[in-house]
Amino acid sequence: MRKILALLLAGTASMSYAESDLISLYNQAVESYPSLIINTNDEKIAQSQAKQGLALLMPNVEGSVSYGASSSAGDNDADVRFDKGVMKYKVELTQAIFNLYAIKLYDAFKENVTATKYETLSTQQTMMVSVAENYFSVLTAKDTVESVQSQLEAVKRQLEQTEQQYEVGLAAITDVLDAQASYDATQVSLIEAEATYDTALQNFAVLTGQIPDKLKVLPKEVTLPAVESGSVSEWVSVALKTHPDVRSVTQTAKYVEKSYGANKANRLPTLAGSVSYTYSDYMKENALLGTEDNGVTEVGISLTVPIYTGGKTSAEILEAGLNYNSALQNLELTKRNVELEVRQAHRQLTADIANVAAQKKAVESSSKALDATQVGYEVGTRNIVEVLSAQSTLFSSKLSFQTAQYDYLLDILKLKQAAGVITEDDLVSLNNMLISE
C-alpha cells in the first residue's frame, strides 16, 4: 500500500508545474533521450560480442547420452539368440591450443567496446548543448513575448494620448491613424511571439519526453563569465586528441584493422586438444550372461588445415581490407569536420564578445534617442511616427542585448563541445547563474 501511495505521489509530482532549471531538464533528458538509450544498448551489444569472442578461446565442455540395440542369430533356430542394448554416457572437454583467428577476433571486439563508449560520450556532450540550446530558445521566446507586451502597452498609451490630443485639437487625425496602425501591428507581433514561445516549449518534449511549464531565467544584470584562454590552434589541438567522435572513429578503425587481421588469420591451421570419457552400459537379454560395463578415456590433439573454402575466405579478406580503408578515410573526414567546428565556434565566440558590448551601447543610445524624440514631439519638431519608431527601436535593442548574452553563454558551451571537453560541471556553472522569477 505504501509503495502504491509513493507511486501515486511521484506521478502527481511529475504532472505538477514546478519551476525547472537547466540541470533538472538535463537529468530528464539523460533518463529518456532515445539516442542515448540506443548508445547504451550498443555498448551492451559490443560487450556481449566480446564475450562471444572470448568464448572461442575458452574450454568447451559437452555431455551426451545415447542408446543403441543390436541382435545376432545362429545358423538355425536351435542356436542361442543374443539381443543386447547399450547405453552410452560421454563427457568431452575441448580446448583451443592455437587459433590465431579467434585471438585476433577477440582483440577486435575489445576495440569495438571502447568505440561504443566514446559514441555514448559524444551523444551525452551533444545532448548537453541541445538542452542548453532549447533552454535559451525558450528564454529568448519568452523575452520576446514580454518585450512585445511592453511595447504594446507603450503603444496603447501613446494611442490614448494621441486620441485625447486629437479631441482637443492638438493632434492631427493622421497621428491617430498612425498610432492605431502601430498598435494593430504590435498585436499581430504579440500573437506570433506567443506562438513561437509555445513551439519552443514543445521542442523540449523531444529531449525530455515532457513539456516544461516554467523555467528559471537569467538576471537582467548579470556578469558574464570570461572565455577560457587559448588560441584557435590550441583549441584545435585539444579537439583532435580528446573529441569523442575522433576517439570513437579511431577505435572503430582499430576494430576494423584487427578484424582484417582476423580474416587473414582464418587461412592458418588451428590446433585443438580434447579429453573425453565414455561409459558404456551393455544390457543383454540373456540374464545368465549378465551385463558388461566399461569406461573409456580418450585424449587427443587435432590439427585442422583449411585447404579450399570455395573462395569464401579470400572474399572475406578483400571485404575486410576495403572496410579498413573506408575506416581510415572516415577518421580523416571526422578530424577535418572537428577542426572546422572548432574554428567556427571559436570565431563565433569572438564575435559574441564584441556583439554583447555593441548591443549594450545600442540600448543606451536607443534610450537617449527615444527621450530626445519624445521631447521633439512635445515641442512639435517630431511626429508620432518617429516617436513610435524610437520606442520600437528601444524595445528591439533591449531584446537584442538579452539575446546576445544568451548567444555568448551558449557559444561557450558549443566551443567546449567542439573541442570535446564539455562536462556536466559546465552546465552546473551556467545553471547557477539562473534565478527564479
From TrEMBL:
Cellular component, GO annotation:
cell outer membrane; efflux pump complex
Q: Which NCBIfam families match?
A: type_I_sec_TolC (TIGR01844)
The record ties this protein, via Gene3D superfamilies, to: Outer membrane efflux proteins (OEP)
Signal sequence range: 1-18
**In its UniProt entry, what is this protein called?**
Outer membrane protein
For this UniProt record, the keywords arranged alphabetically read as follows:
Cell outer membrane, Coiled coil, Membrane, Signal, Transmembrane, Transmembrane beta strand, Transport
- Native species of this protein? Gynuella sunshinyii YC6258
Any one GO MF term held by the record is: porin activity
Coiled-coil blocks = 138-172
Localization recorded for this chain is: Cell outer membrane
Q: Which InterPro entries match?
A: OMP_efflux, T1SS_OMP_TolC, TolC-like
Q: Which family does it belong to?
A: Belongs to the outer membrane factor (OMF) (TC 1.B.17) family.
